[in-house]
Design brief:
7-stranded mixed sheet; Aspartate Aminotransferase, domain 1; 4-stranded mixed sheet; binds pyridoxal-5'-phosphate; single chain; alpha/beta
């Protein structure tokens, strides 16, 4: 280990970055560079990267078109608190791709995007309550963490998965189960008049919606006069050009984007109805329903240049077919491995994201995830890291850079790790 790697313990709490991905000291490394589907540490060791930066790198590391756009922008200006050509291009690409897109505001992170979407919905409806799905992650802000790791819960007083969150904030959030339209309908029947928005990930992490679920939520939002917000952080420009909205044929009032739209640099956006987004127009700042947005790095030119280059690549024919194929290939490879070894596990996912859950129950929502053996999922993640295959704690992320050899390498590593777990008596 290098001295710099050791020094992380002196400067960072727990020697880690403070994300949901944490390794014990013996598995830590300093990432030195990435290329395509691979990441390399400072000693030159190669890792098969199924993290892809936690999702942004849909074209893999250092895609030439993205590199060229970022380098060109870097020589012009890295940040300037003014619109640039790259910002104008990215905004117009997203607005035209997003089925609900009429206008858009840039922010810096996905958490901010969902946070502002809720603020807009509250201002627009003059109501306070939010309905979210149990188990959904919308970033690390106070409202999102209500019920993030809920098992059994009271929909009106769900557990909050962090200390330091005021009860006044958490009690404005009500929970409903993903893929359970009856539960959402009951909640709305009792509280719909005070609900500003229903927010959800159109796929819950990796779990796809049942037929009619998203359509049913759209109808409930219309019936009770609240907004429907899709968090397209995972699905946007990943399942299809028009994201989950196109893939499942449901149009929300607002859609939140992040990850892919920055091409590997930090940016995110709230996109959707003009009448809602116009609440944030500076000239309206004296209005009682004015919604204040501001941030030093909002609409960062580096992220805009890299993001626009990424979207231009994704607009080329066959890109989403390729992403779906690579996702299907790993899911079917892993199902074969699980059958071959004879263990009880579910491979879940859609498009180029997947995960393995240790349960014999089909995964429909967070309830089955919470009752799956999450300790074994963590064990598997660490074993894979020892084999130099990196996944995140919630899923594996694929990109257009992953090829058949990568899928083979991944399935071989899973086979070895799962067999070792059987041998160790864990499965
Ligand atoms: C569905 C979803 N929403 C929001 C976020 C938060 O985005 P960020 O990490 O950029 O704040 C994430 C991040 O993983 C996510 O997966």
């Amino acid at each position: 280990m290098s001295a710099l790697l050791d020094s992380l313990d002196d400067s960072l709490p727990g020697g880690e970055l403070g994300t949901l991905l944490s390794y014990p000291p013996e598995l830590r490394f300093l990432a030195a560079r990435g290329m395509g589907s691979k990441l390399y540490d400072e000693d030159g060791n190669e890792y098969l990267d199924l993290l892809m930066g936690s999702g942004p790198l849909i074209l893999g590391h250092c895609h030439p078109a993205v590199m060229a756009a970022a380098k060109a922008q870097l020589e012009q200006c890295s940040t300037c608190y003014q619109p640039t050509a790259s910002i104008a291009e990215l905004a117009s690409l997203i607005v035209s791709a997003s089925p609900c897109g009429e206008k858009l505001r840039f922010v810096t992170t996905g958490a901010e995007a969902t946070y502002y979407a809720l603020r807009l919905a509250r201002a627009f409806t003059d109501r306070e309550k939010i309905v979210k799905c149990a188990g959904a992650y919308h970033g690390c802000h106070d409202y999102s963490l209500v019920g993030f790791m809920a098992g059994d819960y009271d929909p009106l007083a769900a557990p909050v998965n962090s200390a330091g969150i005021p009860e006044g904030s958490s009690r404005t959030v009500m929970l409903s189960d993903f893929n359970d339209l009856d539960m959402a309908a009951d909640l709305m029947q009792q509280h719909g008049d005070s609900v500003a928005a229903i927010i959800l990930e159109p796929i819950l992490g990796v779990v796809p919606p049942r037929d009619g679920f998203l359509q049913g939520l759209r109808a409930l939002a219309d019936k009770y006069g609240c907004l429907l917000i899709f968090d397209e952080m995972i699905t946007g420009f990943r399942l299809a050009w028009g994201g989950a909205q196109e893939a499942f044929g449901v149009i929300p009032d607002l859609a939140c984007y992040g990850k892919i739209i920055g091409g590997g640099y930090p940016t995110a956006a709230v996109c959707g109805r003009e009448d809602v987004l116009n609440l944030s127009v500076f000239a309206n700042r004296a209005n009682p329903d004015y919604v204040l947005f501001s941030g030093t790095f909002y609409a960062n030119p580096m992220a805009a240049a890299a993001g626009a280059a990424t979207l231009r690549e994704l607009a080329k024919p066959g890109m989403f077919d390729r992403l779906n194929q690579v996702g299907e290939a790993i899911r079917s490879g892993l199902r074969d491995v699980i059958d071959e070894i004879g263990i009880s596990a579910q491979v879940v996912g859609t498009g180029p994201v997947y995960n393995v859950f240790f349960t014999d129950q089909p995964i429909v929502n967070h309830r089955q995830i919470m009752s799956s053996r999450m300790d074994l999922s963590r064990d598997l993640l660490l074993r894979l890291a020892r084999e130099r295959v990196l996944i995140s704690s919630s899923k594996g992320w694929l990109s257009t850079a992953h090829d058949e050899a990568d899928i083979q390498q991944a399935t071989d590593a899973y086979r070895k790790c799962l067999s070792d777990m059987v041998e160790a008596g864990l499965l």
